[in-house]
Design goal:
pyridoxal phosphate, seven-stranded mixed sheet, binds pyridoxal-5'-phosphate, Aspartate Aminotransferase, domain 1, single chain, transferase, Aspartate Aminotransferase, domain 2, globular, 424 residues, five-stranded mixed sheet, alpha/beta, O-acetylhomoserine (Thiol)-lyase, OAc-hSer/O-AcSer_sulfhydrylase
């Protein structure tokens, strides 16, 4: 089916007389007639629900929709995007392992990988997303277990050359994990370009209304774990905590990754989404294809206006012909990228401050991808502990404003931006 139809109807097909909308199964637990019935579930010998920390029917229906949208074989929801990226990496990396990651990734993921996972004994090498094949190859070590990047990076807005990163990962016998939060599967399906695992912060466009924090992991089913069994003992050797099940044997190439992440990581870490939040996420998904188009139209209109304005020094938006990422955007994002635009004010830090407080429609928020337009000056908020030099090195110079264009009329957004620029 077409992605538009999956957005509306994917993941859940009610039977005769059943609820039209996905039911919210707000129950921690599920009843069984015999201990033997329940035992089979614990041994992963039968499918079914027993405790909502591991699986819940509402969450599973929404995960199925996201799985269909990405064109994957299995998927799971998590309580946040952070949990999704942690689970996706930790499912195949352990103490003594190594990750290759694009350097332009979300700050929270950068901290997760470079600080918190380092404490678990997992090392990382960051590479410039523009690096050559040779530079990319040089980042790998014998203990490398995964490659990570974001289709469109938050907040750098660089576009990942997915094919280049997938080919490098596969040359070294490991999967490529792509965080596809910003374009969503409506604008890009990384599996079509060789990515093996996709993650999402569903908090952003998928929810789209600033209502519920959440995440998702989707498996393409393309990666042959058993062909690289020495690298992935967690998937390819017996799990003693599940009576010696070998995930890659029992659940195959298409099911092993998500089953292990559910049975082990969700069991032990418990980053579970609530059924209520999954229901809200599904309401967002039902209109995702319609909303993404408007977010992209507004993003492009605002980027074009800013680019032509004398008080704006530069604009980062891959939809602009002037963007260094325009060619990659034409290849991977032919129908549009996202509604997030960043730009630098010629007047520096002070001009950014005046601009921000003069906006009337766009609210100052540490959020993106909402129906309502919002903006942020990282130098005076998320990165305020840094001096001007450090800000520049971090790719968020003092004059930078990140604007997430919502679903309002582009004329009104541009009029608001124009009057705020006039105040400088
Ligand atoms: C927001 C974001 C995350 C983190 O997601 P949360 O839902 O806030 O935990 C991860 N990756 C990207 C690209 C994001 O924008």
């Amino acid at each position: 089916m077409n992605r538009d139809t999956i957005c509306v109807q994917g993941g859940y097909t009610p039977g005769n007389g059943e609820p039209r909308q996905i039911p919210i199964v707000q129950s921690t637990t599920f009843k069984y007639s015999t201990s033997e019935d329940m035992g089979k579930l614990f041994d992963l010998e039968a499918e079914g629900y027993f405790y909502s920390r591991l699986q819940n029917p509402t969450c599973d229906a929404v995960a199925r929709k996201i799985c269909e949208l990405e064109g994957g074989t299995a998927a799971m929801l998590t309580s946040s995007g952070q949990a999704a990226n942690f689970f996706a990496l930790f499912n195949i990396c352990q103490n003594g392992d190594h990750i290759v990651s694009s350097s332009t990734i979300y700050g929270g993921t950068f901290n997760l990988i470079s600080v918190t996972m380092a404490k678990m004994g997992i090392e990382v090498t960051f590479v410039d997303p523009d690096c050559s094949d040779e530079e990319l190859d040089a980042a790998f070590r014998p203990n490398t277990k995964a490659v990570f990047g974001e289709t469109i990076a938050n907040p750098a807005l660089t576009v990942l050359d997915i094919e280049k990163f997938a080919q490098a990962a596969h040359r070294h016998g490991v999967p490529l994990i792509v965080d596809n939060t910003f374009p969503t599967p409506v604008n890009c399906r990384p599996f079509e370009w060789g990515a093996d695992i996709v993650t999402h912060s569903t908090t952003k466009y998928m929810d789209g209304h600033g209502a519920a924090v959440g995440g998702a992991i989707v498996d393409s089913g393309h990666f042959d774990w058993m062909a690289h069994a020495d690298k992935f003992p967690g998937l390819c050797t017996p799990d003693e905590s599940y009576h010696g099940i070998t995930y890659a044997e029992r659940f195959g190439q298409g099911g092993a990754f998500i089953t292990k992440a559910t049975a082990q990581l969700m069991r032990d870490f418990g980053c579970t989404p609530s059924p209520q939040s999954a229901f809200l996420l599904n309401l967002g998904l039902e209109s995702l294809h319609v909303r993404m188009k408007r977010h992209c139209d507004n993003g492009l209109a605002v980027a074009r206006f800013l680019e032509a304005h004398p008080k704006v020094a530069y604009v980062n938006y891959c939809g602009l012909e002037s963007s260094p990422f325009h060619a990659l955007a034409e290849k991977y994002l032919p129908n549009g990228s996202c509604g997030v635009v960043s730009f630098g004010l010629a007047g520096g830090r002070e001009a950014a401050s005046t601009f921000m407080k003069s906006l009337k429609l766009a609210a100052i928020e540490t959020h993106v991808a909402d129906a309502r337009t919002c903006c942020l000056n990282p130098a005076s908020s998320t990165h305020r502990q840094m001096n001007d030099e450090q800000l520049k090195a971090a790719g968020v110079p003092a004059e930078l404003v990140r604007m997430s264009c919502g679903l309002e009329s582009s004329e009104d957004l541009i009029a608001d931006i124009a009057q705020a620029l006039d105040q400088i």
